[in-house]
Specification:
Elements (H helix, E strand, L loop, with lengths): L1 H7 L12 E3 L3 H10 L5 E6 L4 H16 L5 E6 L4 H10 L8 E6 L2 E7 L9
Parallel strand pairs: 1-3, 2-3
Antiparallel strand pairs: 2-4, 4-5
Length: 124
């Protein structure tokens, strides 16, 4: 059992969110992310809490961010709980919905995006 927890993580991990994440749970928080993208790059990470691949990619990405020293704002979207916001992001930034997905915003527009195992800070 601990082997599987090492690979997929435990259910408690979602409770232990990393401190660099800013959650997107409303239109206002999405607008704040867009506004912040005029000052520094913004990453929106769209995560499916029902997908083991998404959980593994998220864990790997968080480890990458923890080791990086970059001036980037990190926003997190639980797309299961906030499917409407996920759809709005796809529409507003003309990015096909994927899960997991990383969207990089600069100056109010999506300049890059990646999904699944292509998600990396090297894209910023």
């Amino acid at each position: 059992m601990s082997f599987l927890k090492n690979i997929f993580g435990s259910d408690n991990e979602s409770q232990d969110s990393r401190s660099f994440w800013k959650n997107i749970t409303s239109d206002e928080e999405l607008e704040a992310a867009v506004a912040e993208s005029f000052n520094r790059p913004v990453i929106i990470f769209k995560h499916s809490t029902r997908c083991h691949i998404s959980k593994m990619v998220l864990k790997s990405f968080e480890q990458e961010v923890a080791q990086a020293d970059r001036d980037i704002a990190y926003y997190f979207l639980d797309l299961i709980s906030f499917r409407g916001l996920s759809n709005k992001i796809a529409e507003n930034f003309d990015v096909t919905h994927q899960s997991p997905q990383m969207i990089v915003l600069q100056d109010g527009i999506a300049v890059r995006n990646a999904s699944h195992h292509s998600i990396s800070l090297s894209l910023v």
